[in-house]
Amino acid sequence: MKVSKISKRANRILNFFLFAFLCIGVRVWYLSVVTFDDHYESSRAPQRRTVTERAERGTIRDRFNIPLASNAIQYNASICYADIRQIPSVQWEKGPDGKKKRVLARRNYIEKLSRFLGSALTADPQTIEDTIHGRASLFPHTPFVLKEDISEELYCQLKIREKDWLGLQMEQTSKRVYPLGKVGCDIIGYLGAISQREYVRVAQERKELKIYLEEINEGRATLLPKGFSHPQEVQERLSELEKMAYSINDQVGKSGVEASFDEVLRGVNGKKYLATNKRERTQHELPGGQSAQPGERVILSISAALQEEAEKLLAEYEDLQDERDNMGPTKRRHPRVRGGAIVAMLPKTGEVLALASHPRFDPNDLVPAKSFAKRMEKRSAIIKWLESESHIGEIWDGIAVLEEERFSSSKGTFYTEETPLTWDLFLETILPDNGSLRKAIDRVSDVEIAAHLQTCFEALQKLSKDPSPASLLTSLYAGGEVVLSEGMERWKRELDPFLEPITSTRDQLLFLDLLRLVVYKEAIPSGLLERIGEHTLSDHFLYAQVVSYYRKEVKELARKCFHEGEFQEWRETNFKQFLRQKRQEERKRRRYAKPYLEYLEREEQKMFQTFWAREKKQLLLTFLGGGEATYREEILALRQRCSDPLLNVIQEQLQPMTKEEGLAYLATLRSFADLNRPCLGKYPHVKKIDGVQLEKHLAASFYPYTGYGYGRSQAFRQASPMGSVFKLIPAYAGLKQQFQQGSDDLNPFTVVDDMKWTSTPGSNSQILGQHIDGTRIKRFYKGGRLPRAFPGIGKIDLIGAIERSSNLYFSLLAGDVLNSPSDLLDAASAFGLGKKTGIELPGEYQGNLPSDVLHNKTGLYSFAIGQHSLVATPLQAATALCTIANGGKLLQPQIVKLSIGKKPISKTDPLFSLEKYPYKESLSHLGISFPLFTESLSSEKKGYIHYHAPNVRENIFLPKEIQSVILEGMHQVTNGTKGSARVSRIRHQFQNQDAMRAYRKLHPQMVGKTGTAEILYKQTIDAETHAEMDKHVWFLCISYDDEGQTEPELVIAVYLRFGSAGKQGAPIAARLIEKWREIKSAYE
Known about the structure:
The protein is an alpha+beta fold. It is globular and about 135 Å long.
């Protein structure tokens, strides 16, 4: 019974399998017999692959078509992995014994190819092999660059070998170049890799526009996206974005015109459809593709020659002002690079002819590189222009130097003045020369004293119950009588000669922090202190720089040796197991597989860091003084190639030391990266991390807190008080009020500006002048303090006040004459101050107008002479002066004149209006004057020009009567007998002689206004000294074609930081006027 049941079950199972195999057999017969021909033809049919053809980026040129940004040919050596995949990964070959064996054909081929390319490109074959397997294989149809920007000779040699090496693909691409280097860098800008934020923004915009159009097509009511007035505009914008086809690897403009006009410059990518076989080899090109549309050529309003001349004058000014400061009785503190700006505009159109700023950067250094080696070449320049902490650290370590770009008029060239950072220069920068803190530091004559003073303070901290260094020093030196234990008294006596003369607790802490910064006491054993204790702090700092410099060289050598030695051994033994473990981790975390090269590089870096942390002191000791260490032969060979005499000095010091003492000595010579201890005190204008100031932040205090401003144009991205050039605005407000009141005499009032001597200068009772009726005007006047005045100016009206730049006159004009302070604010706003000019460059600063002058009388008086909280950019000042010159038109500064491009002829274009079309001459013989073969027009392109017309932002009430009075006052500034910029007042020895000659010749054709903006400036970080009054100087002028001053020719704004007087800018402006006339005559 049981046997029968089992038999039935077995039969059912066997029947089921029999039926399943029968179905499979029928399906196989159907595929292999009935549909065989169809599938065979399908397998042989070509597959379509889409290839993107990159558009050539448009060039940027000046108004005379001189290239400012263009594209140059670049040769790259690349690998196309899709071609290598034609080689089977596994093959069976007969061996010498006649038996077939399994061979990894593709891997063997890649090894041979890597050895060949390693020899040709002078690169590591193993790295090339890893790159092919790990990176080039990810996107097999996209050539992966192994080495970029190779020579043309090498390119040709490898191009010939392409037929011999499958997968090798030599590329002829373009790279962005800036032919004039630094000229106009802030205007042109530079390219960079698209950021994730920009990429997401473009993708989000495309998504929103698509959703809107879908809803419209479905008939649903929906609101137009912001910035659009018609659905057709939305469609056009979406089409434009899709043609641009931004990808995550694209380069986009990051600043300047490159950023503002990126969509115009980048062009439209093309597409090619290629037929491929089953092995993905290209057979031929399919129809339906679209050629790339190059970007538009952008023609700027800038004159490259005038821009370069302006930049030369700014760079030369740095030397001339230094010379003038050195002639003074006292030392003047200022940043190593003062900076400045020059703006030149056409007053009738608002075209900007020059927008110069100092300091400058080289945009060629910021062009992105594809290969790692090329990026490392550019690293030093990039971190310099970005003013990063890494660059400051390299200066501290002696790897880089402080640089100042200057111009030599005698040689006619720019040059770079290089200054290495020394301990004395560091102290000179952050401390006053004759302050008590600097004197105390100078009394610390050697390392032994510095270490001893640190020991004394640490002992006091241990004996004290107060852990705060500031509280401890306050109780010891600023808290009156304090009862101390015998031990504390003894340690305090050691510190007293140094700390007692320092009156500020903060400066006492700074004294101790500076000692801790330069001498690392914790690493100095007593035996070592006897050997190096006599070293001065300057020498100790210099030795630390030398060691830091060569530590970098030794580290790079060790990295190379480690890669070729220990890491290769580890790889041969552990790589398979290591990669298997990583793949298991990916599967466990449900992540996509990463290229194994990423894991390999990360592991190598981790292993090397462990090796370097363990061996760096011994390696460095071997380099400096001999001894045994890993890679000894390689390190000694490096030492023989170095001829620095300071290395011999350090080597002599190491010779009598034991190995332990030598290692300890090297530990005391710290680099910038090692300065990670918190400071004892807290100091202003010193950077911090999470509220904590570290030693490296104190070390970086020699560098300006906000940097020198590379890449932050002084012309439109930074602002300053305007000083006396602003006086033209209250002059306009007063004249306008008089004109609207119907006065016959537009002069608002007359006053006697004559400050009287007093034993208490600056007091509220000091007499600054008097009214016409004899009423004296005191410093404290009608609820506010009047600004500083000058003696002997005398009786003046409005024209005389502009000529002599009277502070008293314009303060009284704002406070006594104008109906309300808001009239002055309205006038300033009408001339474009306090708001952006609208120039088509990113990052413009809008400046600021004061908000408290309605109730702050002192603020109103200061505002009237261009001080208080008023700040403006040189571009805003030039724009305001253009408004005066052209009779009341507030223009938007124009940086782009026109753009030129080509676009495919659309089928919607009128056929009868086409000037060129295929077979035009032949068709004309038949009497046909229009294109007959319209399909061929799809490959034709038509040119177009887009002009940027002048844009009047606002029309200001400025009748001829008011304009003539202002211009007459400005004429007296440059040509009057008492003018603030008359030729006789300018000291010739501190001027460019060509510029001075031009001013003597052209001043009758110029009207101008000088300005001196006072600022509070403090370079040092000590508490003993306070911020001092310094000044930035301005000169604004209008030039005319003739002395009759009928047609305004040029408006120039000169802004010089840390200058002496506004009249310094007059010869500079004259030289630019002369240069512009030379340029016009050359191109007319």
